[in-house]
Structure formats: structure tokens, C-alpha cells
Amino acid sequence: MSRKGLSPARLEAFSDGVIAVIITIMVLELKVPGPDGLAGLLVVLPTIFLYLLTFVQIGIYWVNHHYLVDEVETVSHGILWSNLVFLFCLSLFPFATDWIGVKGLSSFTTALYATVSIFPGLGYMALWIQVRSQSAAPAHASWGKQIASISLYLAAIPAAYYRPAASLALIGIVAVLWLLPPKAQVPPEGT
Description:
By secondary structure, this protein is mainly α. It has helices at residues 8-29, 37-70, 77-90, 93-103, 107-134, 143-162, 164-179. It has one domain. 76% of the residues lie in helices and 0% in strands. The two termini are 32 Å apart. The mean pLDDT is 87.
């Protein structure tokens, strides 16, 4: 009796659940500021901006994870483990975001955030490699886009010591790069 591979739908559903929990944890970390009114809002504005940036990054990974899972024909052992590594790396975002929320925007906290931003990119790349090695479907993302993203995250680390805002801008550029939808794939003839 031969056993079929695991369903991509189960992988996708599990990943959706984990990503939903990550986003929920981030929301729970937002705290109401001490002073009332505009003064209180100004105090938490950097934290809200960082929360927004993190939410967008996680959302981009969620969207691209769906594109990637659509390329999966059968879920292998390697895909399962690389998906778990990717999800673990993604789960570090609330920690780094909260660290800045508690300690404030500094060179160190921004460099930590940039470093944490690298990990899901590497995890996604590992998952992408696993899927690409087993799928004949056209890829939704290119090597170039992934390498450019990792390079910008790496550049954001030393940039944090020069100017934290420049570091966050580099991370924001990665987000803009991935916000653009993938090029439409041309279906093979006869389909």
C-alpha cells in the first residue's frame, strides 16, 4: 500500500493559524500611553509605526506563502521542516517589535529589529528552495528579489547605528518591493 504525500491544504491551514496567532500577539503588545490626548498619542507614534511596518511584513509573508503553497504538488518532509523554520523565524517579530516598544527606538533596538527581519527572509528562502526542487509550476518569486531583500535587511543593521530611521527605511523598501504583485504567469499551451 503506497502512501500519498501530505496535502498542501493542511500545510496552508496550519501556517495560516500560526501567522494569525503571531499577529494577535503583536496587537496584545500595544499599550495605551500614560498621558491623555495628543501628547499620549505622540509618545506611542513610533511604536504604532513599527507595529504597522511589522504587520505589513507579516502580511506580505502570508500572501507570498499562499502563492508558494499553490506551487506545491505534494508536501515532503523537507517542506514540512522548512515551513516550521520559516514560521519560527516569523514568530520572532513580536519580540523585536515589543523590545522597541519597551526600550524605545535606539541604534541597538533598531539593529535587533533589522536582524530579526533577516530570519523570516532566510526561512522563506529555504522553504522556497524546497518547493522549487519538487514543483514544475512557475515560480512566483525570483532569486533576485529574495537576494535583494536579504541584502537590504543586512544593510539595515549597520544603518541602525548611523541612523535608526534609515535602517527602518531600508526595511520599508523591502516591504514595497514585495507589495508589488508577482508577474502574471502565462499558462502552458493546451490548458
